[in-house]
Amino acid sequence: MKKIFLIGLMGLMALAGSPVANAQYNETNNMFYHTLRTPQTNLLNPALFPTNTTWYITFPGLDFQFGSPVAVSDFIKYDAASQRTIINLDSMMNNLTDGSKFRLGANVNLLGFGFKAGNTFINFNTRLINQVNIGFPTEMVNALRIGNIDENGNVRPVVEMLDGDVINATSYLETALGVAQHFEDIHLTVGLRAKLLFGVANVQTDNTRLEFVTDPNMDSVTARMYYEIQAATFAPYDTTQKKFIFNVSDILSNSNTGFAFDLGAKYDWGPFTFSFAINDLSAGIHWKNNVMTWRPENGQGNITFNGLDITNMLNGGTFSLDSLSTYIENQLHDMTPTKQDSGDYWFSIPTKINLGASYNFGSIFRAGFLFHGQFDRGLLSKSNSLGIGVNNTENTFRWNTTLSIGMNLYDWMEITAANSIVYDSKKIDPFNPGVGIVLTPGRIFQLYIMGDYVSNFYLTDSKAFNLKLGLNLLFGTGGRSKVEG
Q: How far apart are the C-alpha atoms of 52 and 66, rounded to whole Å?
């Protein structure tokens, strides 16, 4: 009865936590957290390490992430009555959350190793991390839906289309050295990992604004736009050849660097295991090399549209596309970007929290609960802002809960299934399953493949997906710290 009560309590914690979460699908693959036989578990908590090996080598592996605030079926629908496919912007807006973003990641685990020395576990790992976040233009979609006339038939003099952060993309190399110590007498393991971050490239548009201003007499519409595109790379960009120039000296002298730390702990209490980790405690990456900024050539860009006179064409005359092209070119001149060498700036990497609990049913089955949170800070400081436009980059905290069950088959197979419950501030999404398999034939070659956050099995209804796959080599047995698994 006690076992059933505690397992039920873990489930209630997951359900109770979900209704106040923000959308969080794809930043991490939760399938690894409660596996006992994969070195990649250590990336989520530095106090966790594989229980069936003395030392290991990890080979290149892929981590692909995708997340969208809306599915295709949220706005493209088939109308049976008219037998037509229609775009429904009202349906799209009903499924959107403020601050929603498209998220795409393609991370590569390059090379790593780890080994045990008594009750001490030491590991080293390198990863190339690539993340792209694109803000969903909620204001723009709403403007297309209702135009510049409000519900009372009055003209909306100013219609905002874009405001704040539109896109940020970061690529960096992470080199990490970690150590964990198991205190056998008190069943406690603590871990620490230090990371050196080498920035490859960063692009962000934290200061962007687009709005349409309608003349009170309805004679013209003016588009006012300010943008600030800031980028930094480890290799210089040759504007003449229009390409990046790569050489060894640029790699060795790369000063786009930062530091980060992971802290973790694990406590074993009979068949229960409780764990906590906070990862990527960091001030971010200090981007100093090859920093460039693009802004409108004449400050804030303005395009005024007074309409087109097509009377000549309607009366049998001709209509010149050349004149239209010249008109557009002249109007766009104010928005022509100008490149400037810029000062340094700091851009954060997300800080993550993992809180886990699991119960082992003997040596075969294991049930797990995981709370995962992520704090996105974005741009931290910028020394070259002109104070023009806006700077509305928001800090966000996103989290979810995951229930999982794992099964150890023989000595060479581990199967894990999970489901994440996500609430996006408008509705609960209770079905985001995941499944993974770890194969270790001969207890040496280990192949893993993990699919997580499968928001729907139909492609048009899917909002997220996360895939991990890779290969490890395991050597030796678990030693004195071996947990039954």
A: 32
pLDDT in tens, 301-311: 666 666 555 55
Residue 455, both tokens: 């928001």
Nearest to 351 by CA among 279, 403, 298: 279
> For the residues 97-119, what does the mean pLDDT come to?
85
Please check whether residue 358 is in contact with residue 273, taking contact to mean a CB–CB distance below 8 angstroms.
yes
Taking residue 441's Cβ as centre, other Cβ atoms within 10 Å add up to 11
- Cα–Cα distance measured from residue 251 to residue 269, given in angstroms and rounded to the nearest whole number: 48
Q: Give the whole-angstrom CA distance, residue 204 versus residue 135.
A: 11
Nearest of 96, 28, 98 to residue 68 by alpha carbon: 96
Strand ranges for 362-412 from DSSP E: 365-376, 379-382, 396-409
Element housing 303 (H / E): strand 301-305
CA distance 168 to 165: 8
The pTM score is: 0.81
How many helices (H) and strands (E) are present in the chain, helices listed first? 6, 29
Q: What is the pLDDT of residues 214-228, one digit of tens each?
A: 776 666 777 777 778
Q: What is the percent of the chain with per-residue pLDDT over 70, rounded to a whole number?
A: 68
CA atoms within 13 Å, Cβ hemisphere of 140: 11
What does pLDDT average to over the chain?
Answer: 76
Domain ranges of the chain: 41-55+89-297+336-410
What percentage of the chain's residues is helix, strand, coil (to nearest 5)?
Answer: 15, 50, 35
Between 215 and 289, residue with greater pLDDT = 289
